[in-house]
Amino acid sequence: MSMSINRRMLLAATGMGLAAPRLGRAQGSWRPDRPVTIIVPWAAGGSTDQMARIVAAELEAALGQRFVVVNQPGASGSIGTRNALEAAKDGMTWAAGAAVDVGCYKVLGLLDTELKDWNLYFAVANVNVLVANPSANIRDFGAAMEAFRSRGASLSVATAGVSSAGHNMMEAIRAASQVQYRHATYDGGNPAMIATVGGETQMGAVLLVEAAEMIRARRLIPLAVQSEQAVTLQGVGEIPSIRRWLPNVPAPLNYFGIWTPKGVPENVIATMNQVWQEKIANSQRLKTYANERAAVFAPLYGQQAYDEAWKMVRQTAWLYFDGGKARVSPDTLGIARL
To answer: Is 83 left (phi over 0), alpha (psi -120 to 50) or beta?
Structure first.
């Protein structure tokens, strides 16, 4: 990802992009009196888990209270998200993940919630990548397409499950090319990546942040990224865009962060807004994480976060519908077709 994209995101989130002062303690601000829970609805080690643990450490430094990350995988992330949704609305329980999941759970019939039901706080935007086990003898995306066309029904691709970023990528490939594949689901991006490394599946569709280390170690071959342009991964070089082969595949940014349901006290939201503007937007740890793993540093919150995430929600909801995977038509939820 280019530095110009990162800088635009940072300037948009911080207003002037200036160094922030120490977090103030305005009257009525929220200061949790016990540890706060961040539920990661996926297995440990994946992209959500990585991001959430960095954010938790930054929030602890800002608010002087522990933020405890708890992994609750299952049902494509909907179990942990439901637990956050049903928790007391006091600001003490948050969920983490990809905003597109929250925006599409109702379309898939997994959970009765929509993007508008949450207070959104983003840290990074991630890029999908299709990788192959070296023993599969698939060296680039063109070879992968040939394999899908000749033996797609028997060609297994690991993802973090239905509604995961990798599954969305594979459905976009299927819609653009009419190829078939065998979907192998796991409880998170890290287990899916490990399964591909171990040879359980020939390929994996995961987030680049999850596969980066194994790509560097040459345990996985990067075939293409779902991005408008090629992406450079430190220590590896340029990974081509899927659009070299499939020009019409959509490539919206996939925003990751934490969120809590609407209805929590106003001072919780006011304080978190301030933390995001003054602490998260200047987080060197998040900037380094994004740079090392070819993600986009995107410290967005509030209406701007909603507007940016909505772009991918619209695209993905109709992708599910057109692929026969939707339980609810997106237009009945106010999700207009692009």
So the answer is: alpha
Q: Where are the domains of the chain?
A: 3-125+252-333, 128-244
Q: Looking at domain 3-125+252-333, which of 3.40.190.150, 3.65.10.10, 2.40.50.140, 3.50.80.10 is its CATH number?
A: 3.40.190.150
What is the third-level CATH fold of 128-244?
Answer: D-Maltodextrin-Binding Protein; domain 2 (3.40.190)
Beta bridge partners of 130: 205, 224
d(CA 65, CA 32): 7
Q: What DSSP character marks residue 29? A: -
Per-residue pLDDT reduced to its tens digit, 280-323 = 999 999 999 999 989 999 999 999 999 999 999 999 999 899 98
Buried b (16+ CB within 10 A) or exposed e, 275-288: bbbbbbbbbeebbe
Reduce the secondary structure of 309-324 to three states and give it as a string: HHHHHHHHHHHHHHCC
CB-CB contact of 139 with 221 (8 Å): yes
**Residue whose structure tokens are 């991005």:** 227
- Mean per-residue pLDDT of the chain: 91
What DSSP element (H or E) covers 197?
helix 189-197
Beta-carbon count within 10 A of 130 CB: 25
Rounded to whole angstroms, the Cα distance separating 294 from 289 reads: 8
Helix (H) or strand (E) holding 233: strand 231-233
Residue reference for tokens 């993802």: 159
**Amino acid in the structure at residue 92:** M
Return d(Cα 253, Cα 17) in angstroms, integer.
21
Confidence category of residue 20, pLDDT binned at 50, 70, 90: very low
Would you list the DSSP string of 85-115?
A: HHS-SSSSEEEEEEHHHHHHHHHHTS-S--G
Averaged pLDDT, 157-173 = 92
Phi (first) and psi of residue 143, to 5 degrees: -65, -35
Strand partners, 68: 37
